[in-house]
Specification:
Rossmann fold, alpha/beta, SDR_fam, Short chain dehydrogenase, seven-stranded parallel β-sheet, oxidoreductase, SDR_DHRS6-like
């Protein structure tokens, strides 16, 4: 398969790229590096990316910006970042990308465990992740067999927790996290939220 991975330079993205490139043609896109560059917060940039890459069999997004902060701390702009980037950026990958995907192709997005397991300071991320999961369930009903769409819900990645000086209990290494993305790409499910802990 010809697979476009957006966010390929991130911790999860690198692991997904490494796992898939052995058996698939992988094209990478990031904000400032990779085979192509894209601003997930810009519809024009997403459209330009697909125009440059051309037809693909699958799209994976392992990226999306949103801000940590409490209900009292977050400004309108802080909320808008997550809504414009992690939410609508990934929604637009489906809206725009479906014209470039082969019949029966797939799009795999990234939400996160904070949708079901919020913590103090996660209100923006929990909101965006929950909305993405709702989008995937609803979009799959409309797309039918023409295009599969799923989202992977990662827990904290071990490497990220270590880099932040946090404990690693309840985390998963990026290499194991990547298994869920591979399952989404190579399987036949649609409208699903793939909990990475089910693919270890």
């Amino acid at each position: 398969m010809k697979i476009l991975i957006i966010g390929a330079s991130g911790t999860i993205g690198k692991a997904v790229t490494e796992k898939l490139k052995a058996n698939h043609e992988v094209i990478t896109a990031n904000h400032n590096s990779g085979d192509h560059q894209v601003d997930l917060g810009s519809k024009a940039s997403i459209t330009a990316l697909f125009e440059q890459v051309g037809p693909v069999d699958a799209v994976i997004s392992t990226t999306g910006m949103a801000r940590f902060g409490t209900l009292e701390q977050l400004s309108d702009a802080d909320y808008q970042l997550g809504l414009d980037n992690k939410l609508m950026g990934q929604v637009n990958l489906v809206r725009i990308g479906k014209a470039y995907l082969s019949e029966g192709g797939s799009v795999t997005l990234t939400s996160g465990f904070l949708a079901q397991n919020p913590m103090p300071g996660s209100i923006s991320l929990s909101t965006v992740n929950g909305a993405l999961e709702g989008f995937v369930r609803a979009a799959a009903l409309e797309l039918g067999e023409s295009l599969r769409v799923n989202t992977v819900s990662p827990v904290f990645v071990t490497e990220t927790a270590q880099a932040m000086g946090m404990g690693t209990e309840g985390t998963l290494p990026a290499e194991q996290t990547a298994n869920a993305y591979q399952a989404s790409i190579e399987g036949n499910m649609t409208g699903q939220i793939l909990d990475v802990r089910d693919y270890v």
